[in-house]
Design brief:
By secondary structure, the protein is α+β, with helices and mostly antiparallel strands. The chain has a single domain, classed as Alpha-Beta Complex (Ribosomal Protein L22, Chain A), CATH 3.90.470.10. It has six helices and five strands. Strands 1-5-2 form a three-stranded antiparallel beta sheet. A two-stranded antiparallel sheet has the order 3-4. Helix 4 packs antiparallel against helix 5. The longest helix is centred in the middle third of the chain and has 20 residues. It is elongated and about 75 Å long. The N and C termini lie far apart (49 Å). The model has no long low-confidence stretch (mean pLDDT 89).
Length: 147
């Protein structure tokens, strides 16, 4: 009896129109997957150099670019891109990753918090060292090819 009452109560929380719009929104978001990397201890300027190389590329080409790039930031971005791909796969269990034709639709590098340190300078002074960090967001889009 209690289970039926709870089920009826939960069903009444969301109206039919709201449920349909939520389903439509869920279907629209199914083709998009993202991953975030917060407080990465690299300056945003260095990370943007690598991020600009993979923006708009297909995931296979982007992974190849990141794998053979000598920069340290490329290792972190490669791991983040693999995470975004795994997120897409968990959202779309039935779809094939090759048919989905995934690409990096958006990659954003924002400045994070700064660690402020002091470096001794001549004549008893001190210079402030700013150790920068950043936040990276990778959004994957898909052009699903119907077979």
């Amino acid at each position: 009896m209690q289970a039926l009452r709870t089920k009826a109560k939960n069903k009444g929380l969301m109206g039919n129109r709201k449920r349909q719009s939520a389903q439509a929104l869920k279907e629209a978001k199914k083709s998009i997957a993202f991953a975030k990397l917060n407080n990465c201890p690299t300056s945003p300027r260095k990370m943007r150099l690598v991020a600009d190389q993979v923006r708009g590329e297909s995931i296979n080409k982007a992974l190849a670019i990141l794998k053979f790039s000598p920069k340290e930031a490329s290792r972190r971005l490669e791991k983040l891109l693999l995470s975004a791909i795994a997120n897409w796969q968990s959202k779309n269990d039935s779809d094939d990753i090759e048919k989905a034709n995934l690409f990096v639709s958006e990659i954003r590098v924002d400045g994070g918090s700064m660690l402020k340190r002091l470096r001794p300078a001549p004549q008893g002074r001190a210079h402030r060292i700013r150790k920068r960090s950043n936040h990276v967001t990778v959004v994957l889009g898909s052009n699903i090819i119907e077979a």
